[in-house]
Amino acid sequence: MRDVVIVSACRTPIGDFAGSLSTVSATDLGALVINEAISRAGISKEDVDEVIMGCVLPHGLGQNPARQSMVRAGLPWDVGAITVNKVCGSGLKAVMLG
Hints:
By secondary structure, the chain is α+β, with helices and mostly antiparallel strands. It contains 3 helices and 2 strands; from the N terminus they run αβαβα.
């Protein structure tokens, strides 16, 4: 059995509907925070085993936004990724799954 540890967490900026972030995709924002969480933890991208990311409104993003964000962040292809869609509870559920 391996110990599971959360070494860092980060969240995307909060914007308004049709506001200044409306032209930035959720998967690009996800890649940004993945890289920031890795930087804050002081680890390399190769140290990441899995990405668990909350995404409440994935309409139009395609399959598994967490995986898309992980790839855009430059993590190795063999890293697993899951997207949690539980409205207000997505972030908390992501922590619980970790």
